[in-house]
Amino acid sequence: MEKLSKRFGSTTAVDELNFHVDEGEVLGLLGPNGAGKTTTVRLLACLVSPTGGRAKVCGFTIAHEPTKVRENVGILTENPCLYERLTAYENMTFFAEAYGVSDREEREKRIRGVLEFFDLWERRFEKVAHFSKGMKQKLAIARTLIHQPRVLLLDEPTATLDPESTDEIRRMIRELSGREKRSVLLCTHRLEDAEKLCHRVLIIDRGKEIASGTPNQLRAKFAGPPILEIELKKQSHEVIRAVRQIASSVQSTERYDSSRMLVTLDDPASMTPRVVEEVVHAGGLILGVRVVAPSLEDVYLRLLRGEVDG
Asked: 77 and 12 share a domain?
């Protein structure tokens, strides 16, 4: 995808985006409301035409080969787009026929395969109206797979779901990426989804890229190194002085029953044992030690607030 753009009148929804998604990779597309995420998905699914730039999906151009692109893409919109008066099986049959799976034996084989994958086979004859939100979302993703696409475009797949259903959807996406080798473009507001699922993320705002990379790369670049947190029975000047000799910075806070020391280290993995040793030698009574890494959410918010330059 090169300099892909989309304008609606005087409004630029997508502004010269460049990215790729490898086979079996989950790429997270992150950004606030109105950032251009959904428009990007609609462009790649050939639901709207680009104003500028170009993009290929599975080797087919979205501008000149939309039919071939649609054959290789499964799209999940924020609205599951299911027929609630029909059963799960009837829904799958309808969408399989719509995608041209005309052979009855092949169609039934595929339907059974995806419903079993999503643990819905035993509920296939129940009307979708009686399904929970999590079951509906699983069925909606199952629908996107019925024509065996190589690329999945998932727009907010865990939105409004409870923690148990969210965890299950995440597990399914991991399997689709890892075991099935599907390429996944994941649009989400839930930074935890991106943290747990994405190999790389692309953060956009007002249609433009502001940062991209693996979650670890973005954390290291924009949020700084991990912090070593040491909880002590009691703080002392001797302990702080000893740690400051080997640490980049040391901050301490007092609690009613303990003290906490936050230590910035260039390499926490190798330096933590030495810091602990110095604290003990200085007479500190340690209650707990942990390395606190900055989250992807910390990076995301700092970028959107303009606190760091992408």
From this structure: yes
Give the residue ranges of the chain where pLDDT is below 70: 254-257
Which DSSP symbol is given to 150? S
Contact 31, 205 (CB under 8 A): yes
Contact 236, 284 (CB under 8 A): yes
Number of domains in the chain: 2
In a domain? residue 94: yes
Q: Angle, to 10 degrees, between the axis of helix 163-178 and the axis of helix 133-145?
A: 20
Q: Which CATH number fits the domain that encloses residue 273?
A: 3.30.70.980
| Cα–Cα nearest to 227, from 270, 261, 253, 259 | 261
Q: Which residues, 6 or more positions from 53, have their beta carbon under 8 angstroms from its beta carbon?
A: 1, 2, 3, 4, 5, 16, 17
pLDDT in tens, 106-130: 999 999 999 999 999 999 999 999 9
Tell me how far apart the alpha carbons of residues 298 and 307 are, in angstroms, rounded to a whole number: 11
Could you tell me if 210 and 279 lie in one domain?
A: no
What's the DSSP call for residue 188? -
The Cα-based distances of 27 to 17, 165, 173 in angstroms read 14, 21, 12
Could you tell me the sign of the dihedral formed by the alpha carbons of 96, 137, 118, 139, in that order? negative
Give a yes or no: residue 302 inside a domain.
no
**What is the pLDDT, as a whole number, of residue 256?**
56
* Structural domain for 230, as ranges: 225-293
Q: What is the C-alpha to C-alpha distance for residues 195 and 295, in angstroms, rounded to an integer?
A: 8
pTM value is 0.84
pLDDT digits (tens, 9 = 90+) for 157-207: 998 889 999 999 999 999 999 999 999 999 998 899 999 999 999 999 999
Total residue length of the chain: 310
Sign (positive or negative) of CA dihedral 192, 198, 200, 205? negative
**Do 145 and 257 fall into the same domain?**
no
